[in-house]
Amino acid sequence: MFSTPTLPACLLACLLATWPPGLAGAATVATGDPPAIMLPMVLEGDVEVDVAQYLVSEKLDGVRGRWDGQRLWTRGGLPVEAPEWFTAGWPAVPMDGELWIGRGRFEAASAIVRGAPGNDAEWRRMRFMVFDLPGDPAVFAQRARRIRELAASAGVPWLRAVAQFELRDRAALDARMAGIVAAGGEGLVLHRRDAHYRAGRSGDLLKYKPYRDAEARVVGHTPGRGKYTGMLGALVVEREDGLRFRIGTGFSDVQRAEPPPLGSVVTYRYNGLGANGVPRFARFLHVRHLLPPPVNPPAAGAPRTPRPCLECPH
What we know:
The chain is α+β, with helices and mostly antiparallel strands. It is about 20% helix and about 25% strand.
């Protein structure tokens, strides 16, 4: 079994982290039915795929939104309290999209979406980038053309079609990925040209992102919930510089039953850093027993005050 967590306040953060992006603090808001949406699978770097069969777009780092033809909703079914002018003139057609203000600005976009209504100045920065039409029975290549037509006819500057482009092979895909990442983008999305819209995860829709890995020392455990009651919920880990954060995914059931002990060093992968320096989407890979010694180790017996866990209230 796992040890008592050193940071019990992490429990609240663990619960909030399971909510859709931007919903923390919105639990009292009335909800609609969560939409049945199409979700991507991950394209790993060594998996073969016929790139020419897909249309490719940049994966935007924003908050997913769903326009039902009359109102804007979050992925989890909560209403987005956008100003009335923001959705005025939008077509009465269901649209999937991303509420986005620019590369590397996820935290800012999330803050706007979950903020108080009436913040017009902040919403002036927002765009709704449309990438699919869930109610359209056509194949994706035709849906993509229809999205461009709808956005153009609406004439609303902040309602835009996500650009789709063609690539001939994996080399071209990797080259495009490198260019987007170098410019501050998150990655790519591949959507089969002949795919119909269907809810759930499917190989018809792939996300392709670079991953980085690093090591950190285990300083605490948080208990699991639901099917993981009595097992590990997440590791609280500490980097060499003292920053603490949580790793809650990537574990097998066996690892959750017998998690890495306190003091062990684990390797995790992540997608860049958030504004506060915390690794984004940290995922457990394996236990690494040793870390290289610090460049300037503290003197023997010197007190060490670690930085607090930035994902956990104190």
